[in-house]
Amino acid sequence: MSQSIIRPGLPSPEQLKEYRIWDSYFTPSYSHPGPDGSSRLIADIERALPAIRKGQFEKLCYFPHVGTGTTTDSDYEKLARSNPNVILKPVKRWPKLLMGMIQVNANDIRVSLDAINRWVQDGPMLGVYFPGGGPGALTCTHRNVYPLVERIADLKGVIMQHTWFKTGGKQSLGESTPTELAELAAKYPNQKFICAHAGGEWQRGIRAVRSSPNILIETSGFDATAGFIEMGVRELGAKRIVFGSHLPSRSLGTELGKIIGADVSQKDRRLILGENYRSLLSR
Amino acid sequence: MTGLELNRRDVLNLAVAAGTATSILPVSVESAEDAASLRIVDTNISLFQWPFRRLPLDDTGALVEKLRSLGIAQAWAGSFEAILHRDITGVNRRLAAACRQHPELISVGSINPELPGWEEDLRQCVNEFRMPGIRLHPGYHGYTLTDSRFKQLLKLATSAARFVQIAATMEDTRTQHPKLVVPDVDLAPLTKLMPAIPNARVQILNARPRSPLLERFAKTPGVFFDTARVDGTDGIPKLALAAPGRVLFGTHAPFLIPEAALIRVHESGVLNESQLRAVYSRNAETFGKAIA
């Protein structure tokens, strides 16, 4: 038996291709791309490639740091603002595979608005990511977030907000919960928001966004706990769920396993694994 | 050896018990097409209901059907009931009865050394139910691995040629019920304890062993791991290469989706065929043979 056919747990390559998987949450070198702006990021993308290929992914969306103050490295922040080419390296190397949404820092409205204009208005980035930790994190109900959301809405961009409901409460002040995202989303009913990680503790997360039709949940970032997708489909409908891999710090097994191992229909799997995200990006 | 230990040895009737464990050698079960010639042993499943929500596969028949569909030939089953129930004797009796209905299932009884008379539970697991090992939940049962009762239990299990599984955790602490928060078990005391109990075999379940403790465990005799919560696209290969022969496949089903661990073992392409087979089954069979 060759190594290539030892692949228990996975559907056939043909089935995976048929799903047309688009990954909304790809996190190579998530906190820092490397001092030169790309080396660690590219190394981590390469680390994820075997799983990406095995999963037959069509596209993945990652979240570049573009100099808005989302890292703790002032030298990198300067480099990112002065030399956009370093940010574009991964997209240029894998143009058919990668998409991007920039990380913004609601603590610095001016710099973040400039970045939105530079990277979303002018392209090639498709939206923004509001982080849940690090120097760029700010709870999403803070008024600083509003002008950024409004600008993204003007540009018809996508908003991914990191969320968690942690037992014992928030571990840092800038974190956001699904309840807080629901509060923000209520102010902008025509803008779609993605609730990253469905709050981690997804039973509460799903309930928190259930009455917010402009919020979709993203599936990565916690153990492959059984029953998550079933509850999401039951309470929100499959059209409000988008797949994320969190590769390579998490895994194809954990994240794809949640969808293929769930007791839902093939039609729902197709929606979750790609159709919903494509619809969101084409608005 | 103390008089107390001699008494327990007598209670356990170890001379009779040794070698009478349920076989954990291969059983013939139809496998999934992709894994036609790949044997898979899942060393970490649990039966019955998780205390905090219903799980899609918490019916034993449905779980077994799922494992069969994934090509899992054998599964070592503990009981979710053991986490909070105090009638551990009843818990183990129900577990043994359920496992007898399915040839793939190997029952692994639970012992709570905080309860009076735990030695009798151990005797039943060994002599009556002929279980090949026992499973512990120190976090939920409220003791540490420096507790003298844990040491006594490990000695007795080893004397009876049984392995011991320690659930380092059952659930991410960030998602636990706020009224029942259980920190991960501190595993570091094993590095001192294991060399003092020759032939002891301990498998740590649901842990994410990291440096520097991982390197210390790799040098500690008798410590093994499972794969259930080892995440990252190359997390299991890294663990398997850091601790050769000591990583046993485990899914923590039905709490976790079993496909998750199955895929994580092979997804990175780092392990060759022999190494994959070792993780999926050979290490478990060696672990079992060493003590059965």
What is the count of DSSP helices of chain A, taking H or I runs of 4+ residues? 11
How many structurally independent domains of chain B? 1
- Estimated structural class of chain A: alpha/beta
Count of spatially separate domains of chain A: 1
Q: What CATH architecture of chain B do you see?
A: Alpha-Beta Barrel
| CATH class annotation of chain B | Alpha Beta
| The CATH fourth-level homologous superfamily of chain A | Metal-dependent hydrolases
Strand order of the largest sheet of chain B: 4-5-6-7-8-9
- By DSSP, the count of extended strands of chain A is 9
Seen as an oligomer or otherwise, the chain set is heterodimer
Secondary-structure map:
The complex is a heterodimer of chains A (283) and B (292).
Chain A (H helix, E strand, L loop, with lengths): L12 H7 L1 E6 L12 H16 L2 E6 L11 H9 L1 H10 L4 E3 L1 E2 L5 H13 L5 E4 L14 H10 L3 E5 L15 H10 L5 E4 L5 H8 L5 E4 L9 H9 L4 E2 L9 H9 L5 H16 L2
Parallel strand pairs in A: 1-2, 2-3, 4-5, 5-6, 6-7, 7-8, 8-9
Chain B lengths: L2 H10 L1 H4 L22 E8 L12 H10 L2 E8 L1 H4 L3 H13 L4 E3 L1 E2 L7 H11 L4 E4 L1 H4 L6 H12 L3 E5 L22 H4 L8 E4 L7 H6 L4 E4 L8 H8 L4 E2 L9 H9 L6 H19 L1
Parallel strand pairs in B: 1-2, 2-3, 4-5, 5-6, 6-7, 7-8, 8-9
What distinguishing features does this structure have?
heterodimer, A: TIM Barrel, 6-stranded parallel sheet, 13% strand, B: 292 residues, alpha/beta, TIM Barrel, 13 helices
Short description:
Chain A is of the alpha/beta class. Chain A has helices spanning 13-19, 39-54, 74-82, 84-93, 109-121, 145-154, 178-187, 202-209, 228-236, 252-260, 266-281, and strands at residues 21-26, 57-62, 98-100, 102-103, 127-130, 158-162, 193-196, 215-218, 241-242.
